[in-house]
Design a protein that fits this description.
single chain; 82 residues; mainly alpha; 2 domains; 4 helices
């Protein structure tokens, strides 16, 4: 399912975007979706944080922390700072 988003931009910017999208043979909405997806991929730190927690868990395991204790600690911290 998709949803609509309404944004306000200067008419000149809209015209340029429409022209560029047409030269690529693409709808303007497709170009904008791609731009938004790229922006989120570049700025979303969630995957990096998940990777960090995984690496922390791997370091704590050999120090006697069981996977369930590690998981519990991660969930506790995430609730506190989420």
């Amino acid at each position: 399912m998709t949803t609509q988003m309404i944004i306000r931009i200067k008419p000149e910017l809209k015209d340029k975007l429409n022209r560029l999208a047409r030269t690529e043979g693409r709808p303007t909405s497709s170009v904008l979706r791609d731009m938004i997806e790229r922006y989120i991929e570049e700025h979303d730190i969630g995957p990096s944080i998940d990777d960090l927690w995984d690496r922390i868990g791997k370091k704590l395991g050999p120090k006697g922390m069981s996977p369930s204790r590690i998981d519990h600690a991660i969930k506790t911290v995430r609730k506190k700072h989420g």
